[in-house]
Every structure is written in structure tokens, then in C-alpha cells.
């Protein structure tokens, strides 16, 4: 079975749904959102705590209420949302291959937007040693148990990780009668603002940094987590569950299967400032590009890229239907920088950057001749999203690769 639409959006989270609404607002006739799960709304569906929605709806909402509002807004705008539709690949010419409960299908779109988000790295990807008892999961699974199924998977877990999502896991546990034994970070310092980690202290949950995971103990259920502290001593934390939080990675399965160029730093698709991928029919937005940003940031990004798509479709005529290719000069991140998004720029834009760990110093964008174009004084904690506003550049600057460097003070 095959059908057609103007724009197909892969992923029904904040970026995908906001893009769909904006496309309809700008007059795009048929917009289809393809969501692999039974309900759209993305990760906020099972984040029962606030704050969501201030940027989008001017009010503070819980995650599930925010997700419902996104879906309702899209449906009211005339967006077609198809749940239980898994996109396996996007082929040349905007042909999407689908796996559905009714069997294999295809959908042909004038443009495709991939907004598949990101996910936490699994225990296997972290190479965590030990047995495989019941009670080991990530934050998303924990919150799905609690908010969607109304169940407590354990009572005294250890939370591994110290990014913002670890605090989400901590709050979920505390609000639902589970008392975490500790937050454990394998790196030497916490990966978010130290002020936020004060919450753990207020809740009397110890934060252990520089701890090597030696083994998960327990045959049928988790019984403990064995650690080696940075002073060489070994510790056994008695617990009945382990939550692996953070270490996000793009959910780039569709992009990879579709043959899109991927960035070695972010592990997501390469794009230009308009969100175009290496396939001119395919655009990309949201956390599949830059793990991890807030729902509000992804919502705004979806709207922005939708505007680019809508303008491109409106400019097409019967004689001119070929989409534009990626434009601009390549931006190359230097030592100490993990990635930069977008990877190509041509006009005024904002770069989204991640450093390797905490960073203090100068962030400098140079052209191929070494001329300084933009300079920013930087002080960033690990995993902090770093923004760099770039003005419109002259033709000389755009004639070769641009180089983004970090000159450290520390």
C-alpha cells in the first residue's frame, strides 16, 4: 500500500509536532506525523513532573499534560497523526518505507522531516559489568513504569549519572515512595550545575563522583552495586534497583538506514543552517541532532525548520521541483569541542556546541585564513549547551572551511 503527502514527519515529539503545526499554519496542505509508539507526545509523556510548556503555552504543565496539549494542538490544526507506524528508511525522492500493524507500506512526501529524538545509553553500551538481574533500567523505563503503569519497579535504587535527567529520576523516585541510596557518577565531577546537585543533598541522597562500576550483584533481582572509589577503596551499595541515567545519544536509526551523512561528534545527521541533510528531500530537527536539549528548545527548532520547508515548497513551480542542496561553509570543531550544529552555515545563525567536559576560556570562530570572525568568553559545566551567535559573513569568510576553536584558560 502506498500514498502521498506534502510533508512527512518522522517522530511525534515536541520538535515533530511543533513543525507539523507550523507547516499547517503556513498553508501546507497535507502534513502526516509518523509515530512508532501507540501515542504521540515524545519523552514528556512519561515525565510526570513540571516544568514544561512556558515557552509554548505560557503556563507550567506536567510532562503528560504538555504532551497531550501538543497532540491536541496538532490535531486541531489538521495534522494527520499516525501512531504505531515505524519508519524503517527514507529512500531517494522522499519515499518512506513503513512497518505498521497492517503490514509494510510506503509513503511518498515532497519533503521529509526527521525528528526522532535521542535516548539514554543502555547498560550494554556503557559496558557495565556484572550479572543481569531484574531491576536494571534507564530513566525513561523508570518513568514509564511509574507514570504510565502506576507501578514501583523497586524501593531503594542507585541512580548512575549526574546530568539533569538524573535529577528527574531522583524526583520521580522521591515523589512515588522510592528512596534512592545514592547518585553515582563515574567521571570526576558532576555533569550539571553544582547548584542543581544541592537538591540531592537537601534530600539526603549522597553523590559519589569518580566511582568505577565493578559489578552489578544479584541473581534474580538486583541486590547491590559494587564500586571502586577514586582513592582505590571498594564499596558495596546495597540496593534493589539501578537506574542508568543520561549519556544521551541520537536516535539516528532512520537517518543511518536512509544513508544520510552523520556527524562524527554528535552522532546525529549533518545539516546546514536550514536543517537540510545530505539528502535534499530530508530535513532534520530536535534532539536527534544535539543530545540533549529541553522540550522547549526542540519545539522552537521544529517551528524554525518548518518555516524553511514551507518556503521551499511555496517556491516550487511545475518546472522547478528539485529541492535545494545543503548550503554554506563547513564548520570544523577543534580540540576540546565534541561537536557543533549546524555543520554548515551561510548566513546569520546560532551554533549549538558541546565541549569535552568543563571548559573555561575563549571560543573563537575563524575563517580558512585564520581571521577571527566571532569570539566569546566561555565558562561551561560538562554537558552544558553552548550557544554562539554568528552574524552574516562576507564572501571571503565563506569561501573555505570555518574553524571553531577553544582556547582554554584552565
TrEMBL record:
Pfam families, sorted: Pyr_redox_2
Specify whether Oxidoreductase is a keyword of the entry. yes
Q: Which InterPro entries match?
A: FAD/NAD-bd_sf (IPR036188), FAD/NAD-binding_dom (IPR023753), Metab_Enz_Cyan_OpOx_G3PDH (IPR051691)
- Domain named FAD/NAD(P)-binding: which ranges? 6-302
Q: What is this protein called?
A: Thioredoxin reductase
One GO MF term, please? oxidoreductase activity
Which terms are listed as keywords in the entry? Oxidoreductase
Tell me yes or no: is Repeat among this UniProt entry's keywords.
Answer: no
The residues that cross the membrane are none
Amino acid at each position: 500500500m502506498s500514498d502521498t503527502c506534502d510533508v512527512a514527519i518522522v517522530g511525534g515529539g515536541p520538535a515533530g509536532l511543533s513543525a507539523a503545526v507550523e507547516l499547517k499554519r503556513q498553508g501546507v496542505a497535507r502534513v502526516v506525523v509518523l509515530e512508532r509508539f501507540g501515542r504521540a507526545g515524545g519523552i514528556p509523556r512519561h515525565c510526570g513532573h513540571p516544568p514544561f510548556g512556558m515557552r509554548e503555552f505560557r503556563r507550567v504543565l506536567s510532562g503528560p499534560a504538555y504532551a497531550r496539549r501538543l497532540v491536541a494542538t496538532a490535531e486541531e490544526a489538521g495534522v494527520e497523526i499516525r501512531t504505531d507506524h515505524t519508519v524503517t528508511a527514507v529512500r531517494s525522492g522522499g519515499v518512506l518505507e513503513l512497518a505498521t500493524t497492517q503490514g509494510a507500506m510506503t509513503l511518498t512526501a515532497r519533503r521529509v522531516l526527521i525528528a526522532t529524538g535521542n535516548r539514554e545509553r543502555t547498560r550494554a553500551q556503557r559496558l557495565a559489568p556484572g550479572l543481569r538481574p531484574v531491576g536494571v533500567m534507564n530513566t525513561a523505563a523508570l518513568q514509564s513504569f511509574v507514570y504510565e503503569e502506576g507501578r514501583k519497579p523497586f524501593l531503594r535504587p542507585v541512580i548512575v549519572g549526574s546530568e539533569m535527567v538524573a535529577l528527574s529520576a531522583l524526583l520521580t523516585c522521591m515523589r512515588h515512595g522510592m528512596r534512592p541510596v545514592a547518585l553515582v557518577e563515574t567521571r570526576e565531577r558532576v555533569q550539571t550545575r553544582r547548584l542543581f546537585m544541592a537538591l540531592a543533598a537537601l534530600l539526603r541522597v549522597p553523590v559519589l563522583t569518580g566511582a568505577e562500576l565493578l559489578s552489578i550483584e544479584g541473581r534474580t533481582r538486583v541486590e547491590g552495586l559494587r564500586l571502586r572509589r577514586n582513592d582505590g577503596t571498594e564499596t558495596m551499595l546495597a540496593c534493589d534497583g539501578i537506574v542508568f541515567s543520561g549519556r544521551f545519544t541520537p536516535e539516528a536509526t532512520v537517518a543511518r538506514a536512509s544513508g544520510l551523512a552523520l556527524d562524527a561528534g554528535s552522532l546525529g545527521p549533518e545539516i546546514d543552517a536550514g536543517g537540510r541533510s545530505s539528502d535534499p528531500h530530508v530535513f532534520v530537527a530536535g534532539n536527534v541532532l544535539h543530545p540533549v536539549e529541553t522540550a522547549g528548545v526542540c519545539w522552537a527548532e521544529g517551528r524554525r525548520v518548518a518555516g524553511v520547508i514551507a518556503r521551499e515548497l511555496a517556491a516550487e513551480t511545475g518546472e522547478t521541483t528539485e529541492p535545494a542542496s545543503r548550503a554554506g561553509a563547513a564548520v570544523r570543531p577543534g580540540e576540546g569541542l565534541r561537536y557543533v550544529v549546524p555543520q554548515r552555515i551561510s548566513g546569520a545563525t546560532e551554533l549549538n556546541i558541546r565541549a569535552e567536559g568543563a571548559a573555561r576560556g575563549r571560543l573563537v570562530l575563524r575563517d580558512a585564513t585564520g581571521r577571527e570572525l566571532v569570539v566569546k568568553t566561555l565558562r561551561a559545566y560538562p554537558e552544558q549547551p553552548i550557544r554562539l551567535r554568528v552574524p552574516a559573513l562576507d564572501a571571503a569568510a565563506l569561501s573555505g572551511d570555518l574553524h571553531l576553536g577553544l582556547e582554554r584558560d584552565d
